[in-house]
Amino acid sequence: KAGLTKTRQNFVEKVEQIFTGYKKIDEELYEELEEVLIRSDVGVNTSMELVERLRKEVKQRKISDPQELTKVLQELIVELLGKEETIAFAERGPSVILVVGVNGVGKTTTIGKLANRFKLDGKRVVLAAGDTFRAAAIDQLEVWGERSGVEVIKQREGADPAAVAYDAVQAAKSREMDVVLVDTAGRLHNKVNLMEELRKVKRVIEREIPGAPHEVLLVLDATTGQNALQQAKLFQEVAGVTGIVLTKLDGTAKGGVVLGIQGETRIPVKWIGIGEGMEDLRPFVPKDFAEALFG
Ligand code: GDP
């Protein structure tokens, strides 16, 4: 439930206001609903799709009272969000999780939180400081490594990220580690470079461990709303994303973007960030999310 208060106010309370403001279900109601959904960062296509589905349900179930629509909309949202998706781990040997995303979205923090979580689950974790473009990124990853008692494999600033990934995977194999979390650079200004760099890192990992990387997690900042949706589309194209971590859901009114991401990319949201602390990462459970939203 934590952190969804503002999204609830911005989204569900407005939707409910529409439903209580109408005596019957008509075209105007649907239009107003669509507008509220779009303004709540649900995204144009997903908003239209939800309203379309709602129309169908109303017809099929012969609903005439607008008050009944909240319940139906909640059901449709749960359906849209799909089932809970877990992280893919290797059956044997180290699992490699590549973490991608634009600078500032909370990538390093998320890696730190995940490392801590996996460690608490009894896994042996190693981190790869693959964002070699910024010295600060390497330092920060080390701070998180110390905090969670996890080793960080690094090279100097400017080194080849693929070489860092290689070192980390080697270390994981020889020391029988369970999880390698690989940080990557998040410079977006050059799509071709970004793509090349990620491809090379992936290639090295694939060569060392068949079937790896087992996950490509994209970190997105919920407070950026529609930008997050654009980034999801871009990284889906360049990196073959298998799951999303949506950060900073605490305190933002833009939580509706979860629906837009699911509706428009079909990439499952696997974790949500709800604060800056080590513990502030939760598996994303669609049903719970919808319930928390609708209070
Ligand atoms: P990076 O550049 O993507 O590696 O981003 P960082 O991990 O350095 O995070 C950027 C800022 O966002 C830091 O101040 C973090 O504390 C903050 N941050 C990360 N995740 C969350 C979250 O879930 N909630 C909040 N409120 N802040 C977060």
From TrEMBL:
> Can you give the residue ranges of the AAA+ ATPase domain?
93-273
Question: Residues in domain SRP54-type proteins GTP-binding?
Answer: 94-295
- Which Gene3D superfamilies would you find in this protein's record? P-loop containing nucleotide triphosphate hydrolases (3.40.50.300), Signal recognition particle SRP54, nucleotide-binding domain (1.20.120.140)
The Gene Ontology biological process terms listed for this entry are: SRP-dependent cotranslational protein targeting to membrane
Any single Pfam family the record assigns to this protein: SRP54
Which reactions fall under this protein's catalytic activity?
GTP + H2O = GDP + phosphate + H(+)
- One GO MF term, please? GTPase activity
Chief location bin = membrane
Instruction: Say which enzyme class the record assigns.
Output: hydrolase
E.C. number = 3.6.5.4
Query: Which residues does the annotation say bind GTP?
Result: 101-108, 183-187, 247-250
Q: Where is the Signal recognition particle SRP54 helical bundle domain?
A: 1-81
* A Gene Ontology cellular-component term: cytoplasm
Q: Where found, per UniProt?
A: Cell membrane; Cytoplasm
| Key words of the record | Cell membrane, Cytoplasm, GTP-binding, Hydrolase, Membrane, Nucleotide-binding, Receptor
Q: Which SUPFAM superfamilies match?
A: Domain of the SRP/SRP receptor G-proteins, P-loop containing nucleoside triphosphate hydrolases
PANTHER family, A to Z:
SIGNAL RECOGNITION PARTICLE RECEPTOR SUBUNIT ALPHA (PTHR43134:SF1)
For this chain, the family text in UniProt reads: Belongs to the GTP-binding SRP family. FtsY subfamily.
Instruction: State its role.
Output: Involved in targeting and insertion of nascent membrane proteins into the cytoplasmic membrane. Acts as a receptor for the complex formed by the signal recognition particle (SRP) and the ribosome-nascent chain (RNC).
Task: Share what the entry says about its subunit structure, partners included.
Answer: Part of the signal recognition particle protein translocation system, which is composed of SRP and FtsY.
Recorded protein name is Signal recognition particle receptor FtsY
Organism of origin: Desulfosporosinus acidiphilus (strain DSM 22704 / JCM 16185 / SJ4)
| Biological classification of the source | Bacteria, Bacillati, Bacillota, Clostridia, Eubacteriales
